[in-house]
């Protein structure tokens, strides 16, 4: 028996194990990489890899088109396909694409990958999109895209080139493949290209394809590692200043096939595979490609790449659709790129294919179901590229715009309203048509006329005429008392929605506007007009004139809004390349006349009441003849034989008399015809006689036109009644008709009965006699409407108080308010729609669910009880029905308003009782602080709105509003009427805010660099802004329109100021000059030269005669504003002067300097009357008290000093800030001083005692500017934290910043690390959503986090969540335990 040497046994066993491992690794590799992987690559051709390191990046990447029968002229899209593991590029004799120079940082010296067209019969002229396929590691085209029949190796199908497959599905697309050096092995002497180098080479090759310079849209198909190279290429292309930006913008979609964005699921085997692949590689004198490292489990490189691409994609301003497919079947060993590996956060729903990894880019034929899945997705993306955006998503977004559905001329509400009879208004309609067709005509036609002259009938006729011609873009028929049809805020969104419907090419651009700002419909009218209408129209080529019809503009709510709409519409000709024609009708009310006066020369107009009377009488006669003949024929069709009206009824004299009574009111003629035609009453002849009885009264001027129009109808109600019957009937009339004419929105008979707490039958009986003046529907659930607003005017006219049909507005508004409140007590309750999930969005709630919970009368009560309360002018008292309603149902009401999309109705409620006033104040603060979330998620009124509000009403901090820019805020200013705040920012914009609501009323865009200074004109109408772009702009504060751009400075503008008479603007610049401008014309009237360094501050004297300027040249100069002569040069500072101010009596000038002093100068003589010394660091800001007696100065020494201007004595040193003071301001009553500091706070001081009465905390960065409102009640502060805050300056308000129901500590003492568990809630656990805005329970949004409470870091322990905020706060919240 032979013996075995132990060492030999070990060696043998080791070899056996090693051999097994090698066999296993090879098996793994065979699964990963088909047989061609192991064959030695062919010798490098001139187009292939080279051993010359200097040339390696130039020549080892080429691309070929996979469908060479398709060329640039007969395709419409390039489909770039990037393939995956398994094949290598085929040999090719095609010449490389022409080389282009690349940027310095590119390693590809001359040329990139070469594209090969699969369908060369398609060229650029007959195609519009390119499909480009990119393969993965160790593959080649066409093998990587080719399926091989296992039973017949000769049966092969390349789905990119097969004429039954992709070319057939997309006949007007060019299809390309591209080959990059994807070999698994490389020669040892070859320098391996990195993913970034491959990406740059890929970009260069794609850019070299024919037609690329024309921005042809691209769809990519990327397989495995090819997808990683592609997203790296996209990141590079999207970099600012990249030479490949056009390719990034041209990319309309990407289909990823088994791309391992998060690495592979077999990292250990991947390591083993690399280890054992070294063996055959060394045998061949080669080494394994470094690129295989990128397929391991998620590496820092891969994490960074995916993160960069995700951020780049989110910042993209054009649509680009992504689709991800992953495998579900394991290969030889185990699954490779599964749903976890193929996941991108920006693609929420990756698509599974039941196949193994090596099959993911191969399909057996046109009937392969997985081919249909991939091609179907490509089809959707290509369709969306051609249409600009997914149709359904775009429509859904556009449908989300709040619109007035009944405002269009062809809406159901307008369906039965009259159009002009063919024999009437012929000359006028012809004139309107000529205006619309004139390419040189004005863009606006204003048709005005007094009530009842037929304006709306003309509007409907014009709209119908242009609609029939296909030229009507949109229409909006305002109507007072019709809810949304009176709201200016819905005007432009409604117009935009209709324009998109009629001009589909606008869809993409309107969708982009909504994408960019989901709240655009709540923004200022100017922003709505520009973003939803003018900018989208600017992208569309539309040859024919497009008509917009706007009827009854005088019935729009809000006089200021009316003027703004007129001003904006008048800009259409200058702003829009599309030939817009805007036809407007209105009464000639004062706000309308003023609005058109401000746009003189930009419109054409015509007054209906100025049309010659004979023409009007003729038209009314034609209308009467036609309508009365129709009434006659209708009556005769039902009359007994022998009782018919004669065929010549009524005779010409009657028609003439009626027409003369009517002129110029068409509403008279229409009402008479309805009255005469009213069935169930006396015969038409008798009713016509009743009307004619008023003829003599009219001639005697005892009755006005409306009396003549409506009294014949109403007097029939009381005809031959006893006094008691008459009194009862009139009371019933007022109780029914009074509410109807005062309703803010029409209601049906059923809803009216419930609202008024009466029987529907009684209402119907009362209305049955009023068909001549009210549109009374046939069904109980259709709304009752006024035929014409003049009927309401007639009934509520105060001059008719003694008339029996007069209706007391205030009395019936009070009754409506009371009934609304009673209904709310009946319906309101928590979670009225049964949503259950606190974070459920309103958009996810079916309208039928809302309607079932809140029937029409309850919806009306929710929306309009405040309106009726305000119009009733009643005094509120503690313990009143209003007070009781809010104590019982405040949150329920807010929830219901949110469900109805009307949360804004809760702001601005009247309150004049002590307790209820404080209650309303708190309501307003809750709504304003949580507006954005309550508006979209109704149940957050019980969650976020409460959690992040103080537990006690006295615990509110002083901040009313936080208003955000996207960069530092440099300057803030109140309008002199205290209603507005202007802020200038590094984000290049000026924003105007409503100081009461915090709503941004205007975003003034136009500067090309940061805005350093803003100022209101003393009349509050204009805003001036100075910018680093070397210009000053003057803006209309109401419309946001830039009225002047003042150019002339050659360096930054650092300061602007209006003269007190609003006529002049002064600007100081780093170009060392001060310029004075005429605010009306924009002409530079004076250039004040003399400073030898930057001008940092300018100020007008209160009498407008002088200008003071402070400069870095250490001087202050006083100039004559009229002549530009330098009156005084005030020398004495020995460092730059950063702030100057005139005393209110114009006699003194104060200057603050970096030399740590304040100087007071006599403005007339230039003598320094006081040098105020005491600060130990730079003085950054000075201000006079309004009574000229005191001067306040803020310094980098962290103090504010108050000085006696006459004696120079420091009366107060205000200490408390912990960093330099940047800005100081006196209150207009001289009692308070506000200071803003780099310590992130604003402090309010008593000027007499020096006591700090308030410390206003809330900013998270420097406070750079503070200002008091002219009424001394509010303080505005602008900060480097990108916000403006408005604070209540009154005493008694808590001076601290409270943190709701949370604990405030230094978060570093509480949290030493944060947990990813908070980011990814699973099952029913609590956690924080990926966007950081929501605390989630499982997959449901649960609690919304305001911006100041969002996590910088977080941790979760069971049902308790700790959040560390960037401000230094820590929130600890405990939720009910999850069962």
Overview of the structural elements:
This protein is α+β, with helices and mostly antiparallel strands and 1379 residues long. Helix content is 31%, strand content 24%. The chain has 35 helices and 58 strands. Strands 1, 2, 3, 4, 7, 9, 10, 12 and 13 form a 9-stranded mixed β-sheet that branches. A 5-stranded parallel β-sheet has the order 15-16-17-14-18. A hairpin with a 5-residue loop joins β46 (1221-1226) and β47. α19 (613-636) crosses α20 and α25 (723-742) packs across α29. 49% of the residues are buried. This is WD40-repeat-containing domain protein. Residues 443-588 form the NACHT domain.
Explain briefly what this protein structure is:
Keywords: Membrane, Repeat, Transmembrane, Transmembrane helix, WD repeat. The protein has 1379 residues and is an alpha+beta fold. The protein has 35 helices and 58 strands.
Radius of gyration: 39 Å
The overall average pLDDT, rounded, is 79
Helix content: 25-40%
Sheet with most strands: 9 strands, mixed
Number of helices: 35
Helix-strand makeup class: alpha+beta
**What is the approximate shape?**
globular
Strand content: 15-25%
Spans of 5+ residues with little confidence (pLDDT < 50)? 1-78, 80-110, 188-192, 265-270, 956-961, 1291-1323
Q: What's the β-strand tally? A: 58
Region (Disordered): 42-108
Family: Belongs to the WD repeat G protein beta family. Ribosomal protein RACK1 subfamily.
WD repeats: 962-1003, 1004-1045, 1046-1087, 1088-1129, 1130-1171, 1172-1213, 1214-1255, 1256-1297
Transmembrane segments: 12-33
């Amino acid at each position: 028996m032979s013996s075995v040497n132990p060492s030999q046994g070990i060696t043998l066993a080791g070899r056996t194990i090693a051999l097994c491992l090698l066999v296993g690794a090879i098996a793994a590799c065979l699964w990963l990489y088909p047989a061609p992987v192991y064959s030695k690559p062919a010798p490098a051709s001139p187009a292939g890899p080279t051993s010359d390191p200097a040339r390696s990046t130039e020549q080892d990447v080429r691309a070929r088109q996979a469908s060479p029968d398709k060329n640039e002229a007969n395709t419409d899209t390039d489909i770039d396909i990037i393939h995956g593991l398994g094949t290598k590029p085929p040999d090719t004799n095609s010449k490389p694409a022409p080389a282009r120079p690349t940027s310095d940082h590119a390693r590809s010296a001359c040329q990139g990958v070469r594209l090969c067209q699969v369908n060369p019969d398609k060229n650029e002229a007959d195609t519009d999109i390119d499909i480009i396929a990119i393969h993965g590691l160790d593959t080649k085209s066409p093998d990587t895209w080719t399926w091989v029949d296992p039973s017949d190796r000769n049966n092969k199908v390349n789905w990119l080139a097969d004429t039954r497959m992709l070319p057939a599905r997309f006949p007007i697309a060019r299809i390309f493949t591209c080959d990059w050096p994807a070999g698994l092995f490389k020669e040892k002497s070859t320098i391996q290209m990195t993913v970034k180098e491959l990406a740059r080479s890929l970009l260069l090759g794609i850019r070299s394809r024919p037609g690329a310079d024309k921005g042809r849209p691209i769809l990519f198909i990327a397989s495995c590692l090819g997808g990683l190279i592609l997203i790296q290429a996209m990141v590079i292309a999207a970099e600012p200043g990249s030479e490949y930006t056009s390719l990034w913008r041209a990319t309309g979609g990407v289909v990823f096939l088994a791309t391992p964005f998060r690495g592979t699921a077999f990292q250990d085997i991947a390591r083993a595979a690399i280890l054992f692949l070294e063996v055959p590689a060394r045998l061949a004198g080669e080494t394994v490609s470094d690129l295989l490292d990128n397929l391991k489990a998620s590496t820092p490189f891969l994490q960074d790449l995916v993160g960069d691409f995700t951020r780049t994609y989110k910042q993209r301003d054009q649509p680009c659709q992504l689709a991800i497919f992953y495998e579900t079947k394991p290969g030889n060993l185990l699954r490779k790129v599964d749903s976890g590996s193929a996941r991108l956060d920006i693609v929420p729903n990756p698509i599974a294919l039941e196949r193994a990894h090596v099959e993911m880019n191969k399909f057996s034929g046109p009937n392969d179901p997985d081919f249909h899945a991939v091609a179907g997705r490509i089809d959707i993306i290509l369709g969306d590229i051609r249409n600009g955006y997914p149709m359904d998503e775009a429509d859904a977004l556009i449908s989300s715009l709040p619109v007035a559905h009944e405002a269009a001329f062809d809406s159901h509400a307008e369906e039965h309203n009259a159009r002009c009879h063919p024999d009437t208004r012929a000359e006028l309609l012809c004139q309107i048509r000529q205006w619309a067709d004139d390419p040189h005509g004005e863009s606006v036609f204003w048709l005005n006329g007094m009530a009842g002259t037929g304006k709306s009938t003309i509007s409907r006729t014009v709209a119908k005429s242009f609609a029939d011609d296909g030229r009507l873009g949109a229409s909006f028929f305002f109507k007072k008392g019709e809810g949304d049809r009176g709201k200016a805020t819905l005007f432009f969104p409604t117009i935009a929605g209709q324009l998109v419907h009629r001009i589909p090419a606008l869809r993409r651009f309107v969708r982009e506007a909504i994408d960019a700002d989901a709240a655009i419909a709540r923004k200022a009218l100017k922003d709505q007009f520009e973003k939803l209408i003018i900018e989208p129209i600017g992208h569309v080529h539309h040859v024919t004139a497009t008509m917009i019809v706007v009827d009854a503009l005088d019935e729009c709510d809000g006089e200021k809004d009316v003027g703004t709409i007129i001003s904006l519409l008048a800009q259409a000709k200058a702003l829009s390349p599309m030939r817009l024609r805007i036809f407007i009708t209105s009464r000639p009310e004062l706000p309308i006349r003023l609005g058109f006066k401000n746009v003189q020369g930009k419109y054409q107009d015509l007054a209906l009441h100025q049309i010659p009377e004979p023409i009007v009488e003729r038209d009314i006669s034609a209308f009467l003849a036609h309508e009365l003949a129709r009434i006659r024929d209708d009556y005769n069709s039902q009359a007994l034989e022998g009782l018919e009206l004669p065929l010549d009824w009524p005779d010409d004299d009657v028609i003439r008399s009626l027409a003369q009574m009517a002129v110029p009111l068409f509403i008279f003629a229409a009402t008479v015809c309805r009255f005469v035609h009213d069935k169930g009453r006396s015969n038409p002849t008798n009713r016509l006689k009743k009307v004619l009885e008023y003829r003599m009264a009219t001639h005697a001027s005892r009755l006005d036109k409306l009396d003549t129009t409506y009294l014949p109808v109403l007097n029939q109600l009381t005809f031959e009644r006893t006094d008691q019957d008459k009194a009862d009937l009139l009371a019933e009339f007022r109780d029914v008709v009074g509410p109807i004419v005062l309703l803010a929105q029409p209601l049906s008979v059923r809803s009216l009965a419930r609202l008024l707490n009466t029987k529907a039958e009684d209402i119907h009986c009362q209305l049955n006699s009023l068909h001549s003046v009210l549109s009374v529907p046939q069904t109980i659930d259709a709304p009752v409407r006024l035929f014409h607003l003049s009927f309401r005017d007639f009934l509520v006219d105060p001059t008719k108080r003694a008339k029996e049909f007069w209706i007391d507005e205030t009395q019936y508004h009070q009754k409506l308010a009371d009934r609304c409140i009673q209904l709310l007590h009946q319906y309101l309750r928590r979670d009225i729609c049964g949503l259950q999930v606190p974070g459920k969005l309103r958009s996810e709630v079916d309208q039928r669910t809302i309607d079932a919970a809140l029937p029409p009368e309850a919806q009306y009560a929710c929306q309009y009880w405040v309106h009726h309360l305000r119009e009733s002018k009643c005094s509120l008292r503690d313990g009143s029905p209003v007070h009781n309603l809010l104590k019982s149902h405040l949150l329920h009401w807010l929830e219901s308003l949110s469900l109805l999309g009307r949360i804004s109705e809760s702001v601005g409620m009247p309150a004049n009782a002590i307790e209820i006033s404080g209650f309303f104040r708190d309501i307003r603060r809750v709504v304003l602080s949580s507006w954005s979330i309550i508006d979209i998620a109704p149940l957050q009124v019980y969650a976020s709105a409460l959690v992040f509000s103080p537990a006690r009403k006295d615990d509110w901090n002083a901040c009313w509003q936080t208003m955000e820019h996207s960069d530092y805020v440099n300057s803030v200013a109140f309008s002199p009427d205290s209603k507005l705040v202007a802020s200038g920012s590094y984000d290049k914009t000026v924003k105007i805010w409503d100081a009461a609501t915090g709503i941004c009323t205007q975003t003034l865009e136009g500067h090309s660099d940061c805005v350093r200074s803003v100022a209101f004109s003393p009349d509050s109408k204009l805003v001036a802004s100075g910018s680093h772009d070397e210009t000053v702009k003057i803006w209309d504060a109401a419309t946001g329109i830039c009225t002047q751009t003042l150019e002339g400075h050659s360096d930054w503008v650092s300061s602007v100021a209006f003269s007190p008479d609003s006529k002049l603007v002064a600007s100081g610049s780093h170009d060392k000059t001060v310029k004075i401008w005429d605010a009306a014309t924009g002409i530079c009237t004076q250039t004040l030269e003399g400073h030898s360094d930057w001008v940092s501050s300018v100020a007008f004297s209160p009498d407008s005669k002088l200008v003071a300027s402070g400069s870095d040249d250490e001087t202050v100069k006083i100039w004559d504003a009229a002549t530009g002569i330098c009156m005084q040069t005030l020398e004495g500072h020995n460092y730059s002067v950063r702030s100057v101010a005139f005393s209110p009596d114009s006699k003194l000038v104060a200057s603050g300097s970096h030399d740590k002093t304040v100087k007071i100068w006599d403005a007339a003589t230039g003598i320094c009357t006081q040098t105020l010394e005491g600060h130990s660091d730079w003085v950054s800001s000075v201000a006079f008290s309004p009574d000229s007696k005191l001067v306040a100065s803020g310094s980098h020494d962290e103090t504010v000093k108050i000085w006696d201007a006459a004696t120079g004595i420091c009366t107060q040193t205000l200490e408390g800030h912990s960093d330099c003071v940047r800005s100081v301001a006196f209150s207009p009553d001289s009692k308070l001083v506000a200071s803003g500091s780099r310590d992130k706070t604003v402090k309010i001081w008593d000027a007499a005692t020096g006591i700090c009465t308030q410390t206003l905390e809330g900013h998270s960065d420097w406070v750079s500017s503070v200002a008091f409102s002219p009424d001394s009640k509010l303080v505005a502060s602008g900060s480097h934290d990108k916000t403006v805050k408005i604070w209540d300056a009154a005493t008694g308000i808590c001076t601290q910043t409270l943190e709701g129901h949370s604990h405030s500590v230094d978060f570093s003492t509480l949290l030493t690390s944060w947990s990813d568990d908070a980011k990814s809630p699973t099952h029913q656990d609590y956690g924080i959503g990926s966007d950081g805005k929501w605390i989630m329970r499982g997959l449901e949004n649960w609690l919304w986090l305001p911006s100041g409470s969002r996590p910088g870091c977080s941790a979760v322990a069971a049902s308790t969540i700790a959040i560390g905020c960037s401000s230094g706060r820590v929130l600890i919240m405990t939720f009910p335990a999850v069962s």
